[in-house]
Give the backbone structure.
Amino acid sequence: MPGTVLLIAASPTGKGCLVDAASVLPVLAAVAPAVLSGTDTANVVELADPLEPQAVLTRLRGAATAPGPLTVFLTGQLQLDRRQRLPHLALARTTSATVRYTGFPWHWIREELRLRAPGSTTVLVDLHTDAESWQHLTGRPLTVGPGAALYGRVAPPPPRRSVAAPTYMKSVATILRSGHRPPLAYLHQQALTRSYGEEPDAASRDLVLAVEPGHRVPAPAAVPMPVTPPGTPPVPLSVTPLPSAPVPADPPADPSADPHAEITAAVQSGRHGEAAALAERWERAALRTHGPGADEVVHWMEVRADLAMFAGDPELSCRTWLAVAEARLAAGQSPDATGVEAAVDRAHHQWGRIGDSTRARELGTALAALRLRVPGRRQGALDDVHRHLSRLQTQV
């Protein structure tokens, strides 16, 4: 049965805009509809900077009544109406004084999705808030109804006179562009990890949402991620596979088999060595099947980089992200390609957490050489590498 995908990017025009929501649509649009939906085929409906609440309601209602799985990708900002203090999705014409009439009430989402079959609906969100809404939501987590899965993050207001980027949703889109749609929990974990590489403060700042159908809504401050917040010294974890759960010598012959759920379970239970071994075997299988530099191979390299970070091994994570960047460049991707820049940014982030000065100097030299080719979008990234290398030299 075909699925339905609804892409919504909404934010006010003018100085009331807190997030560049529409910037995520080209990245999502580059993903195959079937991958967005997780079904063989899918219908995609896109809403970019909608003006009227009724227009959003019409699209949402049409998607909610369609048969088959429904996936909603929602990017934008939340504001409270002054009378009832209810959260609304701010639309193009929304201002603080007109939220009640020009915004899209969040509870309409719950109403439209409440009659859908449990387990058939997924909502992924990347939302920013104004100060008032942020205070409200820290004690009242968002929900989308008991039958729908909800994953994503809610971020506080960006610095004054600045517009935030939807890094979580862009990370989701980047992962899906590989052509593979991992289990939702794993997709969510990967997207958070990637977005933390671009926004290190987000790990200790954002409200993380991860609710499965029928599960109680978690406390807003809880982060269901085995991620060490930036700035916290990594704690080495056991990397010895449990003897009771041996890893097969080769991946299953069934091409429809999906190892991501097994890897996620291993990580969540602390069996990092087993998770890494599984990823390595699938990478070797992808290399045999597709050849060096193929998207499938790079995907498993990125999985290994994330797994090393989960295991508290920033050195291995940095090395692997550097290898990912080199593989993408060798495959003909440009230095300003999203995947290349993201790999170098994550290598840079992990490098800064390496405690051994000798190994940090070694990798820092490689990172500096790569930064000359891939400066990224952060001003002064190469200078930062050189400054940190200079500090490391004094520790000899």
Strands lie at 3-10, 42-48, 70-80, 87-89, 104-105, 121-129, 148-155, 207-211. DSSP finds 15 helices and eight strands in the chain. Residues 3 and 39 are 6 Å apart (CA to CA). The first helix runs from residue 25 to 29.
